[in-house]
Design brief:
Blueprint lengths: L5 E5 L20 E2 L2 E2 H11 L4 E6 L4 H6 L4 H10 L2 H11 L3 E6 L8 H5 L9 E5 L2 E5 L3 H12 L2 E7 L9 E6 L4 E7 L10 E9 L1 H8 L11 H10 L4 E5 L3 E5 L3 H13 L5 H14 L1
Parallel strand pairs: 1-4, 1-6, 4-5, 8-12
Antiparallel strand pairs: 2-3, 6-11, 7-13, 8-11, 9-10
Length: 289
């Protein structure tokens, strides 16, 4: 069984729900305390043994590409200033993985990044993740998934329960509870149509079979190309695909102001250097309201 060494990261979105902050800055580069969202995603993948990271971008993502490169002027300034700790922190970013950049082409939808990078992961199992989805866990969730794959060979997608009134926002899965094998998956169902409250999110292990199905998948809801439509077709034709819950952690979205700010606070609270002061400030602020 082939090891998973490659990941496709979808970072071509426009981040319209976070305008005007995202007018000239990719949403994936917005900071969670002092690291960009996408760097946290990349660090999670690297912890899972991923070596080649394919970032599927578009014309306005140059700041993201520059972030994972060497900034020689900054390195020189830090060296001259004797700021060794910051110097090492900055230099290691470019060495996290082998970064490959592909411009997204094709119809709108979250299945298009996979097709844009298909030739790079041909005939290999790979991870597909969304560059603005974070999973905060004791053991990085990508590692949990890869470890599971190495034992079982199962294709899988991360899931987490959401409130019933939120099922209309996500792909919702129906599973065989004893095994977590997916029996059906529906993109953005109504509350009545939803087979469960298990929402899929941007962590998947896919292979060439899914790519081949996706190539022949018609545009779906909203005239978009949905990865879950390809997964559903695979399942309906007898393919084994599994849902995986996070162990000792949670999925955190960052795509809108409320979720971005709550995610920021959760990461800040856990920082030993600033967490106690942030918690103290938050408590004092709430007392004044």
């Amino acid at each position: 069984m082939q090891k998973i060494k490659k990941a496709i990261v979808a970072v071509a979105g426009s981040g319209t729900r976070l305008l005007p902050a995202t007018k000239s800055m990719p949403k994936e580069m917005l900071p969670i305390v002092d690291k960009p969202i996408v760097q946290l995603v990349v660090e999670e993948l690297v912890a899972a043994g991923i070596e080649d990271i394919v970032l599927v971008t578009k014309w306005d993502k140059k700041p993201l590409e520059d972030h994972f490169d060497y900034n020689w002027a900054l390195i020189d300034d830090l060296q001259k200033a004797g700021k060794d700790k910051l110097l090492e922190e900055v230099k290691k970013i470019a060495n996290l993985a082998n970064f490959i950049y592909v411009r997204q082409k094709g119809p709108y939808g979250n299945g298009t990044p996979v097709l844009s990078a298909a030739s790079i992961v041909k005939d290999e199992p790979f991870m597909f993740v969304w560059g603005d989805d974070l999973v905060k866990a004791k053991v990085p969730f990508a590692k949990q998934m890869v470890d599971d794959y190495n034992k079982t060979g199962h294709l899988m997608i991360g899931v987490q329960e959401v409130p019933l009134d939120q099922v209309v926002r996500y792909g919702i899965v129906k599973v065989k509870k004893s095994t977590m094998r997916i029996e059906d998956i529906i993109e953005k169902p109504s509350v009545k149509e939803a087979p469960s409250r298990l929402a899929d999110f941007g962590r998947m292990i896919l292979n060439q079979e899914i790519i081949d199905i996706l190539k022949n998948t018609a545009l779906g809801k909203g005239n978009e190309l949905w990865i879950v439509d390809a997964i559903r077709s695979y399942v309906k034709n007898g393919g084994e695909f599994y849902a995986k819950k996070i162990k000792d952690g949670e999925w955190l979205t960052t795509g809108d102001p409320l979720n971005y700010m709550t995610t920021m606070l959760k990461y800040a609270f856990d920082r030993p250097d600033i967490g106690p002061e942030i918690k103290k400030f938050t408590k004092e602020l709430l007392k004044k309201k």
